[in-house]
Write a structure and sequence with these properties.
mainly alpha, single chain
């Protein structure tokens, strides 16, 4: 079950990269000096991506744990 650990690690790192990308995107939007409505619209677009990245990261960590238990 070694492949589960490697696959989970890749997924967890992809999810982490997605979370970092969301943080950078929000930081740029906050520094842009947008109005409240424009900032809210940009942040709503990032929320779905943030939740998706979090889910991918959690799935990757679950695969790593499953691989370690089954090894």
């Amino acid at each position: 079950m070694e492949w589960l650990v490697y696959a989970g690690t890749v997924l967890a790192l992809l999810g982490l990269a997605g979370l970092v990308w969301c943080i950078v995107k929000v930081a740029k939007a906050r520094r842009a000096g947008l109005s409240d409505a424009e900032l809210r619209a940009r942040l709503q677009g990032v929320v779905a991506l943030n939740l998706g990245a979090l889910a991918v990261s959690a799935l990757g960590l679950m695969l790593v744990v499953a691989g370690l238990f089954l090894a």
